C-alpha cells in the first residue's frame, strides 16, 4: 500500500498511502508548533519539510519548474509539482504554519516587541544603504561562525560590532566573499547538468537559508545583532554542503589520504572547540570572561562580569567593570544603578547620588533606580527628597514591596510611626515572606510599648514564615516583656538552634533567665554571648550585675 524511501518518509501511491502521508504532515505541523514554543525559529522546520518533500521525495527539478512557471505551462504536473500530492502537502504545511503564527500573534499581542538601538543598531540607522550593508555584514559573520566557530560570545549587542558607514570600510570584503560564494552555489544548484548535484545543492541551500530567515531583519526587526542560537538549524544545510563538497574533492584529488587527514583534523579541532565552549558555559564567571576577548567594546559583557564579581562580594573589582560599562555606553542605566548601589554601601554617597540621578534622568520610569536614589538621599538626611523618590518608584512599579519597606524605614526615622507601620504592612501584603518588614513592625510596636499588638503581628508573621529565626527572636523578646517566660524561652531556643552563632540571641535569652530567676542558665548564656561578641556593652553590664548577685547569694549562704 505504501513503501518507505529509506528515510522514514512515505510515498503516496494510493488512497491509503495518501491518508498516511497526510497524517505525518499533520504530525510535522504539531511538532513544529511545539518547537516554536521553545524558540520562534522552530516554525521554520515546516519550510525545511517542504523543501525535503519536493527535492528528495518528489525529485522536483527546480529550474525546469521555474521555466514552466514563467511560460505559464499548463503541464506543471510533469515538472513534479502535482505528482504524488506534493502541492497538497505543501499547502497543508503552509496552512498549518499560518495557523500557528496566527495563534501566537493572538496570544503574544498584536504588536511587535520593543527593541532599543543598543540591541540592533543597524535597524535604527536612518540610511537604507547603512542598514542594508550592515545586515549583509551580519549574514557574513553568521556564515563565518559556521565555518570557524572560534569567536563565540553570549551577547553581540551594545557596540560589539561597530556599524559600517562607508564603502571604504575594509569589512566590505566579507560581504563580497559571502555573496560570491552564495551566487556561485545558487548557479550550480539551478544550472548544473547533473540532476543529483542540483538536488543536493538546492537541498543544502534551502536548509541553510530558510531557518535563518526569521533572524535576517528582512521581515521584521530582531532584538540582536548576531545570535549563535539562530545558526543551529542552518548548520544542517552547512553540513550537507560541506559533505558534498568533500565528496567532490575526494573524487578529483590524487592524494585522498591527505584530504581525509585534513577533514579529520577540522573535525577534531571543532570537537575540541565544542568541549572548551561547553566548559565555559558551566559557570557564569567563565562564560562572561570568555566574552571579554571577543567583544571588548560590549558594555553588557563588562556589566555581567561586574555583576558576577559583586555577587561574590568582590566590590572593588566589580566597580572597575561597572565603570567601564558606563564608559562604553554612557546611557547604560542598569550599570549606573548597580555601580551606585555599591558606592552607597561603601558610603561614597555623593557619587552614588550623581549616578542614580543620571539613571532616572535617562530612563524616568526606572523604578529600582528611584528607590536606590531615595535610600541615598535618606542617608544624606534629605528626607523630603527621599520620600519623593520612593513614591516615584512606587508610581512606576505599583507592586514594589522593597520600596514600601524602605519608605517605612524613612518614616520610622522621622518618628512617623503610623505611616511607617502602614508602609511595612503594604510590603507584607505584596510580599508575605518579607521578613525585614515583619521584623521592623514587631520592633517598632515593641519599642513604643504596644506589646499586645507586637505579639499579634509576630504570631501572624511566624504563621507565614515559620522557620525565620529573626522573627522568632523578635517575638521572643516581646513575650519576655509580657512575662510569658516559658513560651519566650521556647522561641529563643528555637532561634538559637537555627542560628547558634548569634551573640544577641544568647544575650537576650540570658536576660530572660535573669528576669525569670534561672540565674545559672542566665550565667551560661551570658558567657556564650560574650564569647561570640566580647565587645557587646549591654551584655557585659548585665553579666557583671548577675555575677555580683551570685556572689551576694553565696555570701548569704555561707553566713
How would you state the average pLDDT, rounded? Answer: 87
H/E series: HHHHHHHHHHHHHHHHHHHHHHHHH
Global morphology: elongated
Contiguous helical run count: 25
Gyration radius from CA atoms, angstroms: 35 Å
Distance between the termini: 115 Å
Please identify the structural class as seen in this structure.
mainly alpha
Oligomer: single chain
E-strand count: 0
Low-confidence stretches: 1-19
The description of the largest β-sheet is: none
Task: Work out the strand percent.
Answer: under 5%
Architecture overview:
It is a multi-pass membrane protein. The chain crosses the membrane at residues 20-38, 45-66, 86-103, 170-191, 203-224, 230-249, 258-276. Belongs to the TMTC family. Keywords: Endoplasmic reticulum, Membrane, Repeat, TPR repeat, Transferase, Transmembrane, Transmembrane helix. This protein has 559 residues and is an all-alpha fold. 70% of the residues lie in helices and 0% in strands. The protein contains 25 helices and no strands. The protein has helices at residues 15-38, 45-57, 62-70, 86-108, 128-147, 172-191, 195-209, 234-252, 256-280, 284-294, 299-311, 315-328, 333-345, 349-362, 367-379, 383-396, 401-413, 417-430, 435-447, 451-464, 469-481, 485-498, 503-516, 519-532, 537-558. The longest helix has 25 residues, at 256-280. The relative contact order is 0.04.
